[in-house]
Amino acid sequence: MKRLFIIAALLSALACAADVFLGTQRINTDSGITLGPQGIAKRYLGTQLIFEASAEEEVLLTPAMTSNTTPAPFVVAASSQFNASDWAAWRAFDQQAVNGWSSVLSAGTHWLSIRLDAVRTVTRLAIDQRVEYNWPNYYVTEFELYYRNSSTDEWAYFGTYNPAAPVAAGDTTLDTAITGLQAQELKFVFTGNHTQNGSASLGEIRLYGH
């Protein structure tokens, strides 16, 4: 009987356990594997690692831009800018809630584009509406997303998105998961704008992925 007890204890010690990590922090240990969008699951047999599921952590893909070409090699472009200081194209990617981009104050096909440092996998897209003067009358209601891997490629259509109307200044009116998008350049063509003159305007575009 004692021998059977010892054998059972040894088998129990060798049982598989899963360590679940968020980044480098272990957040759970149990008998199954749970893999979250930013986690890494590891399964051990005793002390031997027998399984590791890797998942690249979702991060903001753009730095805080300080001009249309700074920091390099990121490049922001637009169909137009209301001016080159307060409403420049790069202000849609400067990680500052207090400003944003605006096109010229007239109707037309308005767009923004950004070239990333390399071909990246985009997993999430968010839009923050503007904070400045008269924000309730200047926000995006619809845009089409295009992508390409080189400036010599043709733009390819990816999807159409409809941000909600902001309730307060600077509201995040779109935050959506994206699957199946790998690109170095992305273009946002604004097909719906709640503005008084047909212009396009927003606070911030946030791209996440790896």
TrEMBL record:
Q: Report TM segments.
A: none
A Pfam cross-reference name: F5_F8_type_C
Query: Which interval of the chain is the signal sequence?
Result: 1-17
Q: Which UniProt keywords apply?
A: Signal
Residues of the F5/8 type C domain = 58-210
UniProt key word Protein biosynthesis = no
The protein's matches in Gene3D superfamilies, at most eight in alphabetical order, are given as:
Galactose-binding domain-like
> SUPFAM superfamilies, from UniProt?
Galactose-binding domain-like
Which InterPro entries does the record associate with it?
FA58C, Galactose-bd-like_sf
The protein here is known as F5/8 type C domain-containing protein
Q: Please name the source species.
A: Termitidicoccus mucosus
